[in-house]
Design a protein that fits this description.
The protein has 230 residues and is an alpha+beta fold. Among the domains are: 3-70, no CATH class; 139-229, no CATH class. The protein is 39% helix and 33% strand. 10% of the residues are buried.
Length: 230
């Protein structure tokens, strides 16, 4: 037996400083050193720690060595701490699960809302002249025709109130130009344009101090535009 074993031979079984390492403890079974070691240094504060032998439960460290077994009070206290820690971890896990579930639900609602908004925006676009031109191009059509109001002729509200026949004209030529440009951006070329007046109403009254009638014709001047696929 080595000198370290001879020195320890007179010691009762227990935990002592590891003769092969500067730090930590090693279990002496009363005859020889066992393979059980613990990393706890002699300076570790007194308290309960997991049994370094690998057995289930806790073991009391008195500041210098391991006791043979923990006291009943220490064991009970350790069990209570262990139960409290398990309950705490369980509550934290449930709380984290609820937070994650709420986060997933919020994200799902946001995705659904975004999908609905995107679908509504797509439907609105396809209803515009540019959207209709894009659909016609995707469908392989060679020609695309569209009617756009260029001017509107109507009576003013004051003329209607006083039964006069004065009319006013509203020009939408700038808007029409923008629409035609957006259609050409979809791969079409304007090849022909024509205009027609579409009557929407008529008003008349007898002339004052004269024979005949005053007539006001209301309506729209419509542009008919024909495009060819480029």
């Amino acid at each position: 037996m080595s000198s370290a074993s001879s020195t320890a031979g007179s010691l009762p079984a227990g935990w002592y400083g590891d003769p092969e390492r500067e730090e930590g403890q090693r279990y002496w079974d009363g005859a020889q050193w066992s393979e059980y070691r613990t990393p706890h240094a002699p300076s570790a504060p007194p308290g309960l720690y997991p049994d370094p032998s690998g057995a289930e439960g806790w073991r009391s460290w008195d500041g210098a060595r391991w006791t043979e077994s923990p006291s009943a009070a220490d064991t009970k206290a350790a069990q209570k701490r262990e139960v409290r820690e398990e309950l705490k971890q369980h509550k934290e896990a449930r709380r984290a699960a609820r937070v994650e579930q709420r986060s997933e639900q919020t994200a799902a609602r946001a995705d659904q809302r975004a999908a609905r908004e995107a679908a509504a925006a797509e439907a609105a676009f396809l209803g515009t002249p540019q959207g209709r031109a894009r659909t016609a191009r995707q469908n392989g059509q060679r020609f695309f025709q569209i009617l756009l109001p260029v001017e509107n002729v109507d009576r003013t509200w004051l003329a209607k109130l006083s039964h006069e026949m004065q009319t006013r004209t509203r020009d939408s030529g700038d808007l029409v130009g923008q629409i035609l440009t957006s259609i050409e951006d979809e791969g079409w070329q304007l090849v022909e344009a024509g205009f027609a007046f579409r009557q929407t109403g008529q008003a008349s009254r007898d002339k004052f101090l004269a024979s005949g009638q005053q007539v006001a014709v209301m309506g729209d001047t419509v542009g008919v535009y024909l495009f060819r696929a480029r």
